[in-house]
Design goal:
about 100 residues; alpha+beta; single chain; Ybab, Chain: A; 2 helices; 3-stranded antiparallel β-sheet
Length: about 100
């Protein structure tokens, strides 16, 4: 594969990656811990946090639940992002002479 072909492929992959980033912004992922529900998008931006009235007046419990729910949501969003990017990143292997061994 010549340099120009590689450059075209790289441009194509960059374009696909940008499209996936736009898609990830639209995906919302929820995670729950002790009734606290945290929502993030596929780009790992926090979108919402709902705390049940039952936890009112229990700041320590709220704090722990928010952290736990946020960590769960981030892990889920990382998996979603990885799954979406798998096809794009797979195209990079053969581009620079790195195929499967």
């Amino acid at each position: 594969m010549g340099f120009m072909d590689q450059a075209k492929d790289m441009y194509k992959l960059q374009k696909q990656a940008k499209q996936i980033q736009k898609e990830l912004q639209k995906i919302h992922i929820e995670a729950e811990a002790d009734g606290v529900v945290v929502t993030v998008n596929g780009k790992q931006d926090f979108k919402d946090c709902k705390i049940p009235e039952a936890l009112a007046g229990e700041p320590d419990k709220i704090g722990k639940a928010v952290v736990e729910a946020a960590n769960k949501a981030i892990k889920k969003s990382q998996q979603v992002g990885a799954d979406k990017m798998k096809d794009v990143m797979g195209g990079l292997g053969g581009m620079f002479g790195g195929g499967q061994q």
